[in-house]
Amino acid sequence: MPQRTLLFVLFDGVQSLDVTGPLEVFAGAEKLTPGAYRIHTASLDGGPVRTSSGLNLVPDEALTSAPDPHTLLVPGGEGTRAPDPRLIEWLHTHGPRARRLVSVCTGAILLAAAGLLDGRRVTTHWAYCDTLARDHPAVTVEPEPIYICDGDVATSAGVTSGIDLALALVEEDLDREVALAVARHLVVFLRRPGNQAQFSAQLAAQTAQRAPLREVQRWITEHPGGDLTVESLAARARLSPRHFARAFREETGVTPGRYVDRVRLEHARRLLEDTVGGVEEVARASGYGTPEAMRRAFLRALGTPPVEYRRRFHPAPAR
């Protein structure tokens, strides 16, 4: 098994969890599979850096003396807003030498500034997706997924999604069992699928200003298996279906149907993750009616059927 050298780039204003989250994943995998990874941390001058939370991190070395890595990991944080030009130049020169480029959160901004993301599909923290897309039109920015792997470039959304991406890379590099063991040790699920949305339906949509519409939002969340047709919801808000649909979209930013779809998908996911009920029972409780309808929804939104999704959280016991 080839050993993969990982280089974590450190700088003042870095988000500490962007570094330590993925680092703990890879370090855990190395303990379980000795020789799998060799981990290095480096700053521009080799000196300590102060994270955005005030924690000081002491790197192993300076970037100028660091080995060419298999995987170059660039975290995000406040320090990406006005980065040191020397760091961008180093990334521009040395980034192409890495077999795999990885960013966490706004680390994508640094990679883009170095010209390493042109022509790629990427994501970053939801608050900076528009900025990244505006400043780098050659980069295709997708605000929804928690991480995206596009060939040898992998980018993740905000903070904790770096753990999800690191687990996915460990599974790719080694195998599922190692990734699962690391996840259990860190007390997280194996991993969320990359195309899972950064926000829940309730966070992704705005809260309606009018009380009747807010009540409808609450009702949808609490009754995903109920009658959630526009006509039924409009009656609950005491509005005509046409007026209700228009008002709901104006105040929440999504159509009633889209909101219902998101709530039902999240409810089904939680049941598959946290319970052992059958797929037919989950489909019925989540408002899909039939397992086939739920299967189509999962494939469309997550790219995986419900049975496979559940297997990630409840793997079959070893024989």
SSE topology:
Blueprint: E1 4-9, H1 16-32, E2 37-43, E3 49-50, E4 56-57, E5 61-62, E6 71-74, H2 85-94, E7 100-103, H3 107-113, E8 121-122, H4 129-135, E9 140-141, E10 147-150, E11 153-156, H5 161-173, H6 176-185, H7 201-204, H8 211-222, H9 230-237, H10 241-252, H11 256-274, H12 279-285, H13 291-302, H14 306-313
Parallel strand pairs: 1-2, 1-6, 2-5, 6-7, 7-11, 8-9
Antiparallel strand pairs: 3-4, 10-11
Helix pairs in contact: 1-5, 1-6, 5-6, 9-10, 11-14
Structure in a nutshell:
This protein is α/β, with parallel strands linked by helices and 319 residues long.
Describe this structure in words.
The protein has 319 residues and is an alpha/beta fold. It has helices spanning 16-32, 85-94, 107-113, 129-135, 161-173, 176-185, 201-204, 211-222, 230-237, 241-252, 256-274, 279-285, 291-302, 306-313, and strands at residues 4-9, 37-43, 49-50, 56-57, 61-62, 71-74, 100-103, 121-122, 140-141, 147-150, 153-156. The chain folds into two domains: 4-185, Class I glutamine amidotransferase (GATase) domain (Rossmann fold), CATH 3.40.50.880; 201-313, Arc Repressor Mutant, subunit A (Orthogonal Bundle), CATH 1.10.10. It holds the Pfam family DJ-1_PfpI. This is Helix-turn-helix domain-containing protein. One of its GO terms (molecular function) is DNA-binding transcription factor activity. Keywords: Transcription, Transcription regulation.
